[in-house]
Structures are given as structure tokens and as C-alpha cells.
Amino acid sequence: MNNVYYGKLVFELSKPGRVGYSLPKSEISGYSLNELPEALKRQGKTILPECDELTVVRHYTNMSNNNFGVDTGFYPLGSCTMKYNPKINEELCALPAFNRHPSTPVEFVQGSLKVYDEVQKTLSEISGLSRFTLNPYAGAHGELTGLMVIKAYHQQRGDNARTKIIVPNSAHGTNPASAAVAGFKVVEVKSLADGTVDVEDLKPLLGPDVAGMMMTNPNTLGIFERNIPEIARLVHDCGGLMYYDGANLNPMLGVCRPGDMGFDVMHINLHKTFSTPHGGGGPGSGPVGVRKGLEHLLPNPQVEKLADGSYTLQCGKNSLGSISTFLSNFTVIIRAYAYLLSLGKENVPMAGKLSVLNANYIKECLRSHYELPIEGLCKHEFVFDGLRPEFGGDHHDDSHVTTLDVAKRLLDYGFHAPTIYFPLLFHEALMIEPTETESKDTLDDFIAVMKRIAEEARDDREMVKTAPHHTPIRRLDDVKAVREPKFTFKNL
Amino acid sequence: MAKVIEGLFYAESHEYVRVEGEYGYVGITDYAQSQLGNVVYVDMPEVDDEVTAGEEFGAVESVKAASDLFSPVSGTVVEINEALEEQPELINADAFENWIIKVKLSDPSELDNLLDAKAYEAICE
Amino acid sequence: MFKYFPHTTDDIQQMLGVIGVQSLDDLYAEIPEELKLKRDLDIPSEKSEVEVRKIIGDLAAQNKPLLCFAGGGVYDHYTPSVVPFLASRSEFSTSYTPYQAEISQGTLQYIFEYQTMMADLTGMDLSNASMYDGTTATAEAMMMCVAQAKKRNKVLISATSNPQVLRVVETYAHYHEVELVKVPAKNGIMDKDIARELIEKNDVAGLIVSQPNYYGIIEDFTGLADLCHAHKVLFAINTMASALGVLRSPGEWGADIACGDAQSLGIPMNYGGPYIGYLCTKNELVRKMPGRLVGATTDADGRRAFVLTMQAREQHIRREKATSNICTAQGFMCLFVASYLSLMGEKGLREVNEQSYAGAHYLHDALLKTGKFEDAFGPQTFLNEFTVRVKGDAKTLRKTLAERGFLFGVVTEGMPDCLTIAVTEMRSKQEIDSLISNL
Lengths: 492, 125, 439
Known about the structure:
The structure holds three protein chains of three kinds. By secondary structure, chain A is α/β, with parallel strands linked by helices.
């Protein structure tokens, strides 16, 4: 990792008179921006740098050396499904013929439209639902879209009393946040000690003001929610719809389908389950699927296959509206298509099974050193509640070695840390999701390092509590970052 | 052990009110500030806003958490602690000294619904 | 086995042994049988890489190329070769959100540079780390206005905004229960008198306008900021990002919020995306702003470093009280924009706009000279896009030109006899002349 020479911002590499681009000389004369009225012109100069091409290339190349991706090493972030991002996907989504203006008439983009429709159909079969829109840009956007489907469903039935959405208290923060954006009140239902939804706590919450319930299965602790059929029946009986948060779909592939479990609406994260890259925070894709009877509510535009086998775009009158510029982060969809073709019906179920194998293996190997709060088989991920007290100290003791300390020390060993402090049910939560693309060798290395860190916590506490030591920068002062905010170069 | 002061009234949601005549000074308890960690921002209402017992009137933020503030009393905000705008960490230094809002009480009988120091201490166990 | 699954049969046996089960199916023992799928998935069989290349390659070949003279929010601008090259570095593309700052300084730093550039271009104090696109960024700007106003629930939006922006903002307004009122257009420009009447009622939280507007016209917002502020209304401007280099910035107009799409800053059109929404505002509104924020700080050794900050606004902490539900955004596209602007600089951005301006005006004048077109709204001030009325059938004309290899603008929504046409620095004089000769 290189932070010495190029620990600079691009503005600090600028020198007046340098240029980094080349445009052809225009052969059109007689028109100039100077003609614009003064009142409409930009007055101030910009802070944009003046750099030559090599400076820019070196700058960002060196910056990439200060980054860690799935291609660099093991990335066991629970609930993120950091599986390998196949390179054939990258090659194909960059084909020049896919680079078209969205207003191109449909006759000229039949290839793109077919990709969309094929992906939509494949996702429908995998999830047991009737139809998908691929328009939402991310998981949370898919949640919002799905909740809009639910609200539109009730509104079109003439029922405006459905103001509430039920969310388990173990849910990912986007669930209640999306419900709030969709104009719902959020009602939390409690979880039992094993992390599953407490059905007895749910029953009194149900009534004619409930629009629906959001669930994740396996839940955010990696546990399969066995009571879903009963929960779905209860929610449907009171007139609500069931929403499936597909963030944890990976272990279910080919084994269980949300549509078969009683869910009416769901979203999928292509950048989780279907291998498209996370990109350091997007672009993702959050397709939303619905059961029969709800398809007309999906957002516009939609892709339709006509009787003659060609494809066109439709805008439905009863759609919930529009939630995107056009047909989503399209190149992400092309990547997912390549992935689905590559795996095929033989390997899609294997992905799920191997992810569950990997997670349970780590769990069994590390429970000697880390506190395992929930017994039994997990699915693709599981949670530890910090170090066992014999290694890290009593959790009530202020000087105990925390999950944060363990996470930072892992960075020194060349691993990305697992998810920390989520879900909120366990105070020292450490959520591990290996995914199926990791080998037993990688897992064994990880297990050995995690045991070593536990021993360091017992024998050399300071080393762990002041980690990381071997990364481009040490632990950060994030209190200062909030108290003295500096969001741009000008503030530095 | 978190500090608890006699003579103040406490809410289960970890706010206190110090009554002086027809006014109440509302803030968060020492226990609350220790749970939150470094306070980086206090979201306060404006002078003349109404507050209602049991309802939100603002929030306290730390780096990794945000906590809503629930008013233990009803009334009108007559003053906010402007020092907290520049130095929110004063709440960590002394939560009881650094109140958040001063309220003109509209219904002093509400104080009967609150906990005394001993009862509050018990719920912090 | 399969190239993405590294397990050998031995590996699997050993691991099952450690877990204490016999087979992979045993790992799903706790799932009720009636919930399990009892058949194969009805999807195509696995395809080798050779076949995947052929299938998708053949589909791509079904897309016929058209020379682009369309805009409508998405523009065919020059993407320097360096931009996708840097974006292909997998330390960037295969990384996650930079929550572990110590090993994510690359991502955090390019986002910080992006934030700096967008704040500067828009004339605002700060920018967030992206929204999904321009349409949803505008919807979030609407929600910011309402969140800030507390007691007011009405937001005004110019009817001259891009129709898709309007549809998305309307959708969000409907579900979020915001009263969205369109300020009508008068001759292709927002009617400022009606805007004034509505604002003076003192029940408006925000006013959102577009620059250039949907018809390509550069609107004059003189007086609007003062009017808004006098009535406690937040003023938001949606600007096509490339134009920020040469047109009066939202900050210079006195706006409180700047939003829009930054696709025009070197991001390929890609049939819909990914693009990148930008959202910038003043310091006073930072806590109402959605999206991630990267801030500068120091590490334990006093070195300058970057970190995701002010997270208490976001969904993972505030849940239903968060400023928005946004989690994954378009983080990676910040790298596209930052590297594009680092290469182009102010000079390059100006040249892109000069050439777009020249090309658009050259084409506009030539079209009028043919006698087959006239200005839809009379002579107007425009940058790279303009609207003309076709003396004939606009739809048929566009279709004919498509068959000849030209994407001749878009049929102007709401005006079926008009076309809105854009020209960028990517269209040479020969290409424009060729279009004209094909009319």
C-alpha cells in the first residue's frame, strides 16, 4: 500500500498550464458562449485541477493501492454477500453496442431489451414470483419501490386506512427508513432469544390499519424463520401484504422460494446475490418482484415481449409511478445476466449450499474462542457476540477487548473485517458471511488468524486495542470528523 | 456508577427536569451521556416552540448513535442552551449542569408522573 | 466442478464432518419440507464462458447504432480513455462501502475529491457522496425542503423540468404525502408571476427549477432566491452538470440546494445507467441532507485521513427517522466524475460546452434555414439543446432519420409536433452536415 508520495489530493497535484485532455478542433465558427447574456454566465473560477494525463493516472492508481476489494482478499461482511465478481461480466457489459442513448427507438435496441426481459424472467423463476421490474437502483430503492407497490395496492382497492408497516426489531435500518419514505408508520415486532420473530408479539399488532409486514429470511442473524407460513397467514388474514427483503437470498437459491413461502412482493440485491461488484458504495441494483395480480402496479417503464417475439416499452396506467431515469443501472443488469447464464440451473442451487457449508464451518471452528449466542445450524451467515470472556475479558468491564478492536486487528492480517455492531440484538455483534466463492484454505487461514487475535486479546491486550498497525493509516479520530466537519478541500 | 442528583425529577427515557418556580430545566442524565459516548451534536427546538410530556423535542447525536429526546414536561420553550451549539461535549463533561432547554411549565402536576432520584437509580441497574 | 466454486469433494467431506452432518442437504434440515422446492429451477443450463460470450455478443449485435442528436437529460459526451481504465482497477470496483476507513482510503479519497468538485461547480458549501440519479436526487431535494420546513408540506416545481424528473418527483411526493404543485410554463419558461403568487401564500417549503430546462432554454432566475428567502422557502436548482462549468451556478443564483445528474461529466450513456445523482447544499442544511458524507480527519499518528462521517443522519443509525433510506448509492461513479474532471479541468469543461454550443446553434440555424422547422417558443437562449416545431409529422420524420442512422432528438413530450434536439462536442461538422442533407 502506497501512501507516502501520493498521499495528496488531486488539487495538490495541479499546476497552471497543464492539460489532461484532447478534443478535436471544431470546424464550426461564428458561435461562441460569449454571446450568452452576462446574467446567465458563471462568474467565478472553478477549483478544478490542471494535470497532465500521467499525473492523473498515477494519482488514482496509487490511491487504489490504499484500497481493499474482494479481488485483494477475504471479505466476510455479514449481510453483504461479498462473493467473487466474475470478469466475463465486466467484459460483456462494456460491449460498445450496449452503449446507447435511452431514447433510442426500441427497434434499434432489441438486444438490450431482451437482456432485461431474460433477467426479469429468470429472477421470477428463482424467487417463485410472477414478474420483476429491474428499474430500482439499489436494495433500499427496491424496498421503497416494493412498499409503494403495497401502498398503491391498498389505495386502488379504496382502502386508505392502511397506514402501518410491521418490521422486526432485527431488521436492517433500510427497512424502517424505506417505510418512512413511503409514508408509512413503522411498528416494531420483537424477536425471541434465537433472533426469530416472536409470533405472540406480532398477533396484537395486526389489524385493518396494517398495510403489510417486511421480513428477511434467513433473518439478519442468519437463522431461517420457520414460522413464516403462519406469519404470512396472519398478515394476509388481516388484509396486509408480505414483503421479502432479499438481502439474504443467497442460501435460499434453488432450495426455497419467497413466492412459495407466502411473500407477495420482494426485492433482490444484484450486487449481493448475483455477483455484480459493490464499487465502494454502488452502483447496485434492486429488482422488485411481485406475485400474480400485482404486476400492473410495477413502476414505469416496463419491458414487454410482444407476440411476434420482439420487445417494446410500456407505461401502465395503474403503475405506482416512476422511480428512475429509465431502465435502471443497465450495465449492472447485463453483468447479472452473464452470471445467470454462467451458473445455469445446475450451479445456482450449489451457490446457496456451499455458502451455508462455509458459514457453518467457520462457526463450528471458532466457537471455542468467540461467544456464540445462537445454537444450531445457521444459513449463509451467523453472529458472534464478541470474544469469549476468557480471551477478551468480561463484556461489562470497560477495558474488555471489543468487537471493534478485533475488527481493526484483522486488518493487520490482510483480511477485511466482518460486519460489526449489527444487528443490534447483541452488543458486541460480529457477523460473518464467507460466501460460496471462498475455498476451505482461505477459511482455514481466517480461522487461524481469528484464534490468534483471541489469544493476543488475552496475552497482549494493548496490541489489539490499538490496532491496526500495518495499514496505510492508523485508527481514525471520527469524533473530530463530526465536531470539526471538513467535507471539501477548501475546508482543509 | 453514574451520578444521580437528589431533588430532580426523572423520566424512564433518561431525561431529567430541575424545577425552579414555574420553569423546568430539561436535560439528559449522566447515565444517558455515558451510554451515548462523545456527544457531537444536539438538535434543539426553537424558543417559543411547544413541548409535550412524553413526546419528542429533539435529539442527541454521537458518532455512532442518535437518541431522541423526550420531554418529561409540557410547556413552552423559553430558552435553549446555546453553548451546546458550539460545544456539545459539555453534556459529557457534566450532564446535569448543562441542561438543554428551559420550559415554562403548563401543568406542574405532570411532575407526579416522574421518578425521584431513588426510583431512577433503581431502573439504571 | 465449477470455476467459481473452489471446493473439492474432499474439502466438502471434511467440512461436513466438522459441522457434524452427512450431506449438503442436511444443512437445510431445520427448514420445513413443505417449504422446499422439489424440482430443478426452470432456467437455462449452465453455459461455458465461450457460449456466454457468444450469446451476449449476439444480443449486442442486435442493437443498431444511431448517431446521437438526442439529450433529454442524458448526453453523448467524450469519455477520456483514462476514465474507464482507472475504473477497471478492481481494488476500487470490488470493494465495499468504506466503513473500515483504514483500508479504504482509496475510495474515501476519490469521493472527497468528487465532493469538493461538485460543491465547487454548484457554488454550494458541500456535496454528498452521490444519489442514484438526477431524478431521485431531485425527489430527495424535495424531501429536504419539507424536512427543514417542519410545518409546511407544499413544494413547487417548474413545469419546464424534464418530464421524467417530474414523474419521479411526483411519485415520491404522492407516497411521502407531500403536496407537489407544478408552476406552469409561459412560452417555454417557468411563469415567474405564478411562482410569486404561490410563494406569497407563505405555505411553501421549497421551489425546484431546472437549468437548462427540458426544452433546452436557459432560464433567468434573477430575483427568485430573494423572493424565496423572504418567504422562508428553500430554493433548489437542478442543473445539467456539464453546464455548471459555464452557466451561472446555483450558488451564484442564491440557491440553497443544487441537485441533478452528473452523467454529462464523462459517464457513458449505457442505455440508462449507471449515472450519478448529485446533491449539494449549504452548511446550515447538512443535517437534513441524505446520502453518505466523507470528511477529513486525522489518524492516531496525526496523518490526514478520510472517513465516512455524520452517519447519525443515515438509516443504519436513525432507522425510520433517517433523512432518507439510501444505503448503496452510486459511489463508484464518483471515481468517473473525479477522474474526468481531473483530466478536463476548467479549460476542458469550457471547451466541451463551447463546442456543444457551437454545434447546437449551427444545427439549429441550418434547420430553420431549410424552411421545414421553426422555433417552438420563438428565439430563445440555449446551450446545447433546443426545441423546434416540425412542419410535418415529427414522429415520422424521426423514424425516417433513424432508418438512415440518426437519432434525431426526442419528440417533445406534450408537444407532438416538436422535437427537442441536442448536439455535443462529439458531433463533428461533417456529421451535422450529413444529418441536414438527410432531411
